[in-house]
Specification:
The complex is a heterodimer of chains A (111) and B (120).
Chain A: E1 9-12, E2 18-23, E3 35-40, E4 47-50, E5 64-69, E6 72-77, E7 86-93, H1 95-98, E8 100-102, E9 106-110
Parallel strand pairs in A: 1-9
Antiparallel strand pairs in A: 2-6, 3-4, 3-7, 5-6, 7-8, 7-9
Chain B: E1 3-7, E2 11-12, E3 18-25, E4 35-41, E5 47-55, E6 59-63, E7 71-76, E8 81-86, E9 95-103, E10 106-110, E11 114-118
Parallel strand pairs in B: 2-11
Antiparallel strand pairs in B: 1-3, 3-8, 4-5, 4-9, 5-6, 7-8, 9-10, 9-11
The chains are: A mainly beta (111), B mainly beta (120).
């Protein structure tokens, strides 16, 4: 069982928006602004798409955005495109005993 | 451009040791701005952070509680490599293993991943 809770799957039609939640605790997501999100296509390595809750690395479209409220972080993908179909993982710093924790992953299907 | 190239066996017998290597190019394993991690993705789907090492005037390593007693991570500075050893493996250790560079609290570069199956 993963430390952070994500929905197993979400879906949306091209052009729509979807939001993926990532629920942790006051020891990880709620305590630090070191939440990141990763996109993983089949048989590929994960790719960083959001860091520090809501920052985008260079080259990541602004359709991807992140936020946090309390112990829950969220990834929103607007204007869905077929290439967005992938697995998405959240990650949070959890202090100097547990270090890093991940979510169980969410499979996004673009209908 | 930083690249991480992983190598190692895809099949390990139960109770044996899993050994993987990660060749680093475009950065140094001794970089004072990076940490070098091993992360795995199990068949059930989730990612699990395992261990990291980093150099800040001396070497430091941090370990996940779940594997702390049987995991080793070593920087091989002469080859600019990172190694992983996981002892006494069981089928529950079957996963895709990734090495990843951690910089500014993010994993900005990942290796290609290696599927390691623990089976007799």
């Amino acid at each position: 069982q993963s430390a952070l809770t994500q929905p197993r799957s979400v879906s949306g039609s091209p052009g729509q928006s979807v939001t993926i939640s990532c629920t942790g605790t006051s020891n990880d997501v709620g305590a630090y602004d070191y939440v990141s999100w990763y996109q993983q296509h089949p048989d590929k390595a994960p790719k960083l798409i959001i860091y520090d809750v809501n920052k985008r690395p260079s080259g990541v479209p602004d359709r991807f955005s992140g936020s946090k409220s309390g112990n829950t972080a969220s990834l929103t993908i607007s204007g869905l495109q077929p290439e967005d179909e992938a697995d998405y993982f959240c990650c949070s710093w959890a202090g100097t005993f547990t270090f890093w924790v991940f979510g169980g992953g969410t499979m996004l299907t673009v209908l | 451009q930083v690249q991480l190239q992983q190598s190692g066996p895809g099949l390990v017998r139960p109770s044996q040791t899993l050994s993987l290597t990660c060749d680093i190019s475009g950065d140094s394993v001794s970089s004072i701005r990076a940490a070098w991690n091993w992360i795995r993705r199990s068949p059930s789907g989730g990612l699990e952070w395992l261990v990291r090492t980093y150099y800040r005037s001396k070497w430091f390593s941090d370990y996940a509680v779940s594997v702390r007693s049987r995991i080793n991570i070593n920087p091989v500075t002469s080859r600019n490599q990172l190694s992983l050893q996981l002892n006494s493996v069981t089928p529950e250790d079957t996963a895709v293993y990734y090495c990843a560079r951690e910089q500014s609290s993010t994993y900005d570069t990942w290796g290609q991943g290696i599927l390691v199956t623990v089976s007799s």
